[in-house]
Amino acid sequence: MAGKSQEKTPWLIEYKGTIFPGCAPKENLEAMPDFHIRDDDVVVVGFPKAGNHWCAEIVNNVLRAAGKTSETTMDSEAPGRILEFDDRVGDEMRTNHRFLKDKPSPRLICTHLHREFAPRGIASPKRNTKIISIMRNPKDTAVSYYHFATRLGYNEKDWEPFHDDFLNGRWEYGDFYHHVLGWWQMRDDPHFLFLKYEDMKKDNKGAVEKVAAFLEADLEEDQVASIVEACTFRSMKVVYDKATDVSCRSVIARKGVIGDWKSLFTEEQNTAFDAKYKKKLEGTGLNFDFE
């Protein structure tokens, strides 16, 4: 069930037992399994507020620098446009999966979907499709999501009830662990590259080099350095804060730090998160840094 918290949040919908934002309407979600994935698509998948747009910017810059795409191929307005969303661009409401259907190759596609809701060509890729799974520790993800939703004006709750909803999978995109573990099953599949937000923060150059190698992009050192500089949080925040053309883009970047969860978590909340973290991830080989 959607839960008590959704009684006052009409912009949230429930689809097959999982809560989604209203900008991912049922019609879009129903179309997802059959959305055609091309052999040369590059896909970024991650739970919301895990660094999806950051990763997409790196991918976009790598492809451009390597000459694998042109100015007209990538969506310069928002390389991190989410597949299952409807986005407002100016006065137009745009259904992203229909927009992407007509885009020339290679396409950069982003999604927050659990693996069972994703297009078949992403959930079980074939041929040359490349998929980058970006993950962030659940505590910072929760705090970032709380501030993001509040700044957009669609979170009516204080931190404590939001924390409870996030922990129990009653917020957008449902249970964090269900999402990450669903994609983590593909860790040995060569179509996938797994990146962690915390590793990217600690070594942005290393992340750019990993993405370039995964995408088979042969870059010079000066090209790597230029991408690293363009994709620092500082540089991206300047651009994103001024954005007016794409819905939500201006509030995406806030602090971009590891350990911001300490600013809101109580000792009791931290204990509850630690207990679920251990229960869900122990023995899976998946772990996160929290500071």
From TrEMBL:
EC number, as in UniProt: 2.8.2.-
Domain Sulfotransferase stretches: 39-285
Keyword Transcription: no
Keyword match Transferase: yes
EC category: transferase
Family designation: Belongs to the sulfotransferase 1 family.
Protein name (database record): Sulfotransferase
Species, as recorded: Branchiostoma floridae
